[in-house]
């Protein structure tokens, strides 16, 4: 039986609002063990903010002895100024192979999962790789 996204997705999704400042996103990334935030506006998915997007948008001098007021100002940008808009999404019933192909074809690190337009989860390349390895282990072939 094929593995579907509903079997492996994270349902505890952390979101930020489009008008949140990057300080909010940075605090979440600093505390969390994940690298993608889903951006919503009135519960509708609008974009994805990756930790890489955040790091590109803020000053590399933050937290260093060279930090200036101007460096700190980079944290005042809004999430919508940095996020990836119109993210590629999948439905929970999509199989592992299809989701993997979508990630690879679009050169992205995560797929928000929508069911009837409602955000229900997120799946990342690590989730897909972990599922693949578990599948291989169950079928007695090494990963």
From TrEMBL:
What protein name is recorded for this chain? CBS domain-containing protein
PROSITE patterns the record matches: CBS (PS51371)
Q: Which SMART domains match?
A: CBS
The top of its lineage is: Bacteria, Pseudomonadati, Pseudomonadota, Gammaproteobacteria, Alteromonadales
In terms of Pfam families, this protein maps to: CBS
Q: Which organism is it from?
A: Shewanella scandinavica
Instruction: Please report the stretch or stretches of sequence annotated as the CBS domain.
Output: 9-65, 83-141
What keywords were assigned to this record?
CBS domain
**Which superkingdom is the protein from?**
Bacteria
DNA repair is among the record's keywords? no
Family matches, as InterPro entries: CBS_dom (IPR000644), CBS_dom_sf (IPR046342), Diverse_CBS-Domain (IPR051257)
């Amino acid at each position: 039986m094929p593995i579907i996204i509903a079997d492996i997705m994270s349902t505890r999704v952390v979101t930020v609002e489009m008008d949140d400042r990057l300080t909010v996103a940075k605090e979440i990334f600093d505390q969390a063990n994940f690298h993608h935030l889903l951006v919503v506006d009135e519960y509708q998915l609008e974009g994805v903010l990756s930790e890489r997007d955040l790091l590109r948008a803020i000053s590399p001098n933050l937290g260093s002895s060279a930090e200036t007021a101007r460096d700190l100002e980079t944290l005042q940008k809004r999430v919508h100024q940095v996020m990836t808009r119109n993210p590629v999404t999948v439905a929970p019933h999509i199989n592992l192979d299809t989701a993997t192909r979508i990630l690879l074809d679009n050169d992205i690190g995560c797929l928000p999962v929508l069911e009837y337009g409602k955000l229900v989860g997120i799946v990342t390349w690590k989730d897909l790789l972990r599922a693949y390895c578990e599948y291989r282990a169950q079928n007695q072939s090494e990963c």
